[in-house]
Design goal:
Elements (H helix, E strand, L loop, with lengths): L2 E5 L14 H29 L3 H22 L9 H9 L4 H4 L1 H7 L7 E5 L7 H8 L4 E6 L2 H12 L6 E6 L12 E7 L8 H9 L2 E12 L18 H10 L2 E7 L5 E8 L3
Parallel strand pairs: 2-3, 2-5, 3-4, 5-6
Antiparallel strand pairs: 1-4, 6-8, 7-8
Bound molecules: S-adenosylmethionine.
């Protein structure tokens, strides 16, 4: 299992540095050279086509600008994860997020006890992971699961700033498997991560094997319609609430609770269906 562990940390708190993110960022910068080369070629062609026709050039530039704006916004929240980790983390951690995300109310609604094992799938920068660690500290266990190692590094560093003893494992997961130990988890939690998964019925069939008896799965994700307002990215890949219920039913779960206090997101709880 591809994990690293932080527990009962006695290490001095380190100041977070985006240097941690340098490696993935450098890889991305290399990729951007390729994009620049392609763009150079395109610009040469454009220059040739627009010679002697400044109106065409102005029209082309304006159209390109109008097309690029939504694409750039969508880039921040695309299906396959961040292209710029630092920017993505800033987006997930922005303080004004609390207003609609209501993290403390979410934690209260989940009715946790401090002996629980909680898996935060698609944990990202740890916006919720830290709340879970704080709730169970060293009596319970928190698994932060993500496919993006840079996110998990940031997540772990920020947990250290809580200055509390804790048990946590950081799992670099596979796209189709959270790599959690069998029969280990009381609560599997996903916030804005469900819509990132492919073949979700298969994924949650696999998740079933990781749950303890009476284990739960809680899913928070954006409404695909006007209720979520302007999210700054395309809603094409969001999953409607009813589809989540259908897919989870197909995977062998039944809905056990629905919380309705989040203005832009549904918040559903599932348990394994009785046979
Ligand atoms: C929008 S972020 C949400 C982060 C966090 N849950 C929050 O609410 O702040 C989605 C996260 O899911 C992760 N992710 C995407 N596909 C995944 C997969 N198949 N398994 C686990 N994590 C995944 C991304 O890397 C990203 O960190």
């Amino acid at each position: 299992m591809n994990t690293y562990c932080g527990s009962r940390s006695s290490r001095p708190a380190r100041l977070f540095s985006f240097a941690l993110l340098d490696v993935p960022l450098r890889v991305r910068l290399c990729r951007s050279h390729l994009r620049e080369a392609t763009a150079d070629f395109g610009l040469n062609c454009l220059a040739t086509a627009s010679m002697g026709n400044p109106g065409f050039l102005a029209f082309f530039l304006l159209s390109a600008l109008l097309c690029a704006a939504p694409a750039l916004a969508q880039h921040k929240e695309q299906h396959r994860g961040p292209s710029d980790l630092k920017e993505y983390i800033e987006l997930l951690e922005r303080p004004e997020r609390d207003k609609d995300q209501k993290p403390d109310e979410v934690i209260k609604a989940l009715n946790l006890d401090r002996y629980m094992t909680i898996a935060d799938i698609g944990a990202g920068s740890g916006y919720f992971t830290r709340k879970f660690v704080w709730a169970v500290q060293d009596k319970g266990m928190v698994y932060a699961v993500d496919i993006e190692p840079g996110m998990l590094k940031y997540n772990e560093e920020m947990i250290e700033h809580l200055h509390t003893p804790y048990n946590a494992k950081f799992i670099v997961a596979k796209e189709n498997d959270p790599l959690l130990p069998p029969k280990s988890v009381d609560l599997v939690f996903l916030c804005n991560a469900y819509h990132h998964l492919d073949k979700r019925a298969d994924y949650f069939t696999r998740v079933k094997a990781t749950l303890k008896p009476k284990g739960r799965v809680a899913i928070i994700d954006f409404y695909h319609d006007e209720r979520s307002g302007n999210l700054g990215f395309s809603k094409d890949h969001l999953i409607p609430r009813d589809t989540v219920i259908k897919e989870m039913t197909d995977a062998g779960y039944t809905i056990s609770k629905e919380h309705t206090f989040l203005p832009k997101q549904y918040f559903l709880e599932f348990v394994v269906a009785e046979k």
